[in-house]
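Good morning,

Both structures are done.
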Amino acid sequence: MPLVMPLSANHDLETKELAEFFNETLGFCPNSVLTMQRRPAISKAFINLNKAVMANEGRVTSALKRMIAWVSSNATGCRYCQAHAIRAAERYGAEQEQLDNIWDYKTHPAFNDAERAALDFSLAASQVPNGVDEAIKKRLYEHWDEGEIVEMLGVISLFGYLNRWNDSMGTSIEGGAVESGEQYLGKHGWEKGKHV
């Protein structure tokens, strides 16, 4: 049972209109947004931040951004966000071999050195205490420019918020997210946990 129940998608029409963004990303409006709309200023600000963070202005693809989100969510243990991130990675064109082997990105040949640097950055930045160090910085700068690094940290930070929100809230997970979680993450022990 969630800490706070989500409201109807029709509760706040401005949120509903902004939330159309998630129909492309996930195929549904997340229950997290439906809960945030109990304070519509929060739901609207969150959706606008999400859109800004996920906009592509460099070489960081939509698929890579979602894999960065998955690594961050895996590091923090949020099963809700893990399933959402892997579903969005699939919907945004991540290679099947990458989806099937996301757990092994450090060594699997489906990932190149630039992607590994980005995903290692996500892992280090999502840890408490923070693990970003000179070695991570050096590897990032071998492959990415400063604007692209800002885009990546935007994703990591956005998912830091979502990981805290959804794990604390015990947000009910949607069927489509469960399906993606079981398909790509189940073999490594993923389950809904408290997100029923």
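Second structure follows.
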Amino acid sequence: MSASPDPILIEVPEVLETERLILCAPRPGIGPALAVAIAESLVQLSPWMPWAQQVPSFEDSEAVARRLCADFMARRDLTYQIYDRVAEGRRLLGGCGLHRLDWEVRRFEIGYWIRSSAQGQGFVSEAVMALTRLAFEQLQARRVEIRMDDVNLRSRAVAERCGFELEGILRRDSLTPAGEVRNTCVYARLGL
């Protein structure tokens, strides 16, 4: 039996394109745009995202972007920024990615967020479908999951719209950013 390849040698595209979006791997210099998008969306993100509890500085967001870039190159986390393909200047809409990577099993978890002014336009579903194709077609995933707080109805709707099936609800398994006990929905799609 041959050993699994070292993940750092696995080819992962740095750019994914859809009809309306460009998903780009993180790169130095995006910190200010990232900070602005998070600041605009703090009220909507803070109930769900531990990293969105206060307005980030440009410098803090730049440090995050550089760490995400390093993690992408090392294949520890595959984060992409979501850009509007048709907007002038390719406006940063949010972020998404494949997280909790298990290269041996080929199991990945999709995560996502979108700035407030871009909500309700189908951008998240379009990005999730692009990541799902990447996972199954290029990375030979056996399993792709999406997890969210059970009361996050918008996120649940994205998973269902993208063909993920609810496998179960983990009761009282984690805490919200506010420190309250929560339930987690586990949605999944399976590969061959």
